[in-house]
Amino acid sequence: MSRLAQTHGLTDVQREILATVREFVDKEIIPVATELEHRDEYPQAIVDGLKELGLFGLMIPEEYGGLGESLLTYALCVEEIARGWMSVSGIINTHFIVAYMLKQHGTQEQKDHFLPRMAAGDVRGAFSMSEPGLGSDVSAITSKAVKDGDEYVLTGQKMWLTNGGTSSLVAVLVRSDEGHTDAAPHKSMTTFLVEKEPGFGEVRPGLTIPGKIEKMGYKGVDTTELIMDGLRIPADRVLGGVTGRGFYQMMDGVEVGRVNVAARGCGVAQRAFELGVRYAQQRHTFGRPIAQHQAIQFKLAEMATKVEAAHAMMVNAARKKDSGERNDLEAGMAKYLAAEYCKEVVEDAFRIHGGYGFSKEYEIERLYREAPMLLIGEGTAEIQKMIIGRRLLEEYRFQG
């Protein structure tokens, strides 16, 4: 176990879960991650292993067949998994966000129907906010739902849907002006729980998943569009049973998702440090290991400090949410810092490898392509700084 990124105050159960996940990562993920990533192959065997470990139900309450663990436990597991291969943590993240939204906002019938199967990993979740022309402006959503008797008819195009092909349940945010025509834009949005068959093409009448989007990194996990053209959804599949609450439900999910992205950044940074410090002791120049050169030692010192700082902020944000307190400030800070530090630590490890870092035979090449996704996932750095700035002005309002 590394000295870096240790978490104090864990229970025996938490330590046992983390030890099990770390062993799984070391034995089942790291040895095959780069090969699968280069082939852009979905890691089915790894996902099956995570299912057996019960990780798809880690935060789902025990009454629904889950483990009922905290956000902190989940984030620390994600950190370990991302250390092995970030794409695998992405497969779990979207599932976790949908399960969290159901737990927090779903009707009792919706919880009873979905959560036991999600805890078992038999139903895999994905969520969808973004659209082709949307960016970070969620209020500009154009996908819409129109009431038709006991159903809603959904039309529109969504973008950047992680697990779009492999999921069987998608939480989709659309505009529904029913009863909210005079409200602010974010008050006229509704989240629908859309069940579908896994795969590509027309996965149910009115719903098409065109295929995987080709990406620079973050391979293996399928990222897709979602096209709705006359998709009919029963009214009882409105999350929470009431329209107009979708924006708040999604933002609650994204808030815990930001802790998850911070954890992913921590995990990737840890792996980059491990690769860098190991290579620095193996590679010799001028008659000695490059780790003995002061310039390399300075890099290692900076990298380790960033790993430790990002981990501490991520843990703080998770614990804040677990306590029931508002944590958008802490989650925004953790996501912003962990993503930026991850990019910097990966680049320093890449530099330590020299020309070999550019070779696909070395793992750092994969990390170098994966790290940039964290800069934009669950909100760009600029969005995080806006959130942080607004919250700071609320906390430190000048009275004059």
What secondary-structure arrangement, pairings included, does this model have?
Layout: H1 12-39, H2 44-53, H3 71-84, H4 86-105, H5 108-119, E1 125-128, E2 144-148, E3 151-162, E4 169-175, E5 189-195, E6 201-204, E7 207-209, E8 223-234, H6 246-282, E9 284-285, E10 288-289, H7 294-322, H8 328-353, H9 363-374, H10 381-395
Parallel strand pairs: 1-4
Antiparallel strand pairs: 2-3, 3-8, 4-5, 6-7, 7-8, 9-10
Outline the biggest β-sheet: 5 strands, antiparallel
What count of helical segments does DSSP give? 10
> Structural class, judged by helices and strands?
alpha+beta
- Determine the strand fraction and express it as a percent band: 5-15%
Q: How does the overall form come out from the CA principal axes? A: globular
* Mean pLDDT score: 93
Instruction: Report low-confidence residues grouped into runs of 5 or more.
Output: none
List keywords for this structure.
single chain, 400 residues, alpha+beta, 5-stranded antiparallel beta sheet, 3-stranded mixed beta sheet, 51% helix, 14% strand, globular
Any overview of this molecule?
With 400 residues, the protein is α+β, with helices and mostly antiparallel strands. It is built from ten helices and ten strands. A five-stranded antiparallel β-sheet has the order 2-3-8-7-6, with helices on one face. A three-stranded mixed β-sheet has the order 1-4-5. A two-stranded antiparallel sheet has the order 9-10. A hairpin with a 2-residue loop joins strand 6 and strand 7. Helix 3 packs antiparallel against helix 7, helix 6 packs antiparallel against helix 7 and helix 8 packs antiparallel against helix 9. The longest helix is centred in the middle third of the chain and has 37 residues. The mean pLDDT is 93.
